[in-house]
């Protein structure tokens, strides 16, 4: 009869050990899942040369940027924008004046500030290549956001509060930068950015 309590105590200790072990393992797995692998470089500048994981452009070929989408893609971890500043250069939108300052433009509509109303999203070109060059948002006759670059584009966010701004930083190597803007206190503020590039084989033309 004395053996039975000892068995119960042993079983209890064994079960407690399993529970503690599982808790420790779960916490460790959760911790590891939030860590960036050591071999992934976190980019924290706007210099395209920092993207060392993407090789140079193919030797002997000239596909252009559009041909890169069939190559393997490298997506860098999101990086928080240091000291983010709200867009402050708001101005009245006069369609005739804007039209005179660009070669051509078009617009779409979707909600970017979460008020339930759609704003006008503008894409404009100032040259024949690497377009569009201007991305802007017009709300109630006021241009509340404007950015310039090459292959620059505003995309709708899932939350309807803010947007994603995509810009092609390097057409030869194939590098894009996505910047997430939120709408806060009447202005659009960049909160993080992420860079994407394409890995290409370094091919040499055969004779």
Describe the structure.
By secondary structure, the chain is α+β, with helices and mostly antiparallel strands. It has two domains: 1-35; 48-198, no CATH class. Helix content is 18%, strand content 33%. The protein is built from two helices and eleven strands, in the order H-E-E-E-H-E-E-E-E-E-E-E-E. The strands form two sheets. Strands 1, 2, 8, 9, 10 and 11 form a six-stranded antiparallel β-sheet that branches. Strands 3-7-6-5-4 form a five-stranded antiparallel β-sheet, with no helix packed on it. A hairpin with an 8-residue loop joins strand 5 (119-125) and strand 6 (134-139). The longest helix has 31 residues, at 3-33. The protein is flat and about 80 Å long.
Task: Lay out the secondary structure.
Elements lengths: L2 H31 L39 E3 L3 E2 L10 E2 L2 H7 L2 E7 L8 E7 L8 E6 L2 E7 L4 E4 L6 E8 L4 E10 L2 E12 L9
Antiparallel strand pairs: 1-11, 2-11, 3-7, 4-5, 5-6, 6-7, 8-9, 9-10, 10-11
Features of this protein?
single chain, 6-stranded antiparallel beta sheet, 5-stranded antiparallel beta sheet, 11 strands
End-to-end separation: 91 Å
Most strands sheet: 6 strands, antiparallel
- Regions with little confidence, pLDDT below 50 for 5+ residues: 24-49, 56-62
Please give the share of residues in helix: 10-25%
Q: Count of helices?
A: 2
Quaternary structure type: single chain
Which word captures the global form?
flat
How many distinct folded domains?
Answer: 2
Pattern of helices and strands: HEEEHEEEEEEEE
Number of strands: 11
Beta-strand fraction estimate: 25-35%
Classify the secondary structure makeup into a structural class: alpha+beta
Mean pLDDT, all residues: 75
Rg, rounded, reads: 26 Å
């Amino acid at each position: 009869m004395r053996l039975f309590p000892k068995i119960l105590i042993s079983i209890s200790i064994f079960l407690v050990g399993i529970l503690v072990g599982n808790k420790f393992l779960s916490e460790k797995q959760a911790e590891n899942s939030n860590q960036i692998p050591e071999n992934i470089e976190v980019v924290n500048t706007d210099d395209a040369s920092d993207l060392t994981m993407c090789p140079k452009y193919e030797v002997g070929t000239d596909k252009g940027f559009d041909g890169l989408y069939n190559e393997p893609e490298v997506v860098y971890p999101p990086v928080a924008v240091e000291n983010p500043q709200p867009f402050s250069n708001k101005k009245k939108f006069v369609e005739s004046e804007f039209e005179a300052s660009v070669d051509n433009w078009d617009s779409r509509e979707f909600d970017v500030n979460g008020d339930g109303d759609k704003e006008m999203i503008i894409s404009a070109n100032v040259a024949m290549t690497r377009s569009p060059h201007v991305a802007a948002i017009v709300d109630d006759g006021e241009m509340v956001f404007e950015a310039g670059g090459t292959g620059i584009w505003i995309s709708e966010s899932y939350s309807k509060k803010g947007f994603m701004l995509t810009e092609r930083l390097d057409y030869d190597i194939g590098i894009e930068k996505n910047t997430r803007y939120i709408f806060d206190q009447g202005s659009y503020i960049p909160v993080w950015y992420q860079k994407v590039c394409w890995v290409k084989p370094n091919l040499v033309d055969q004779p």
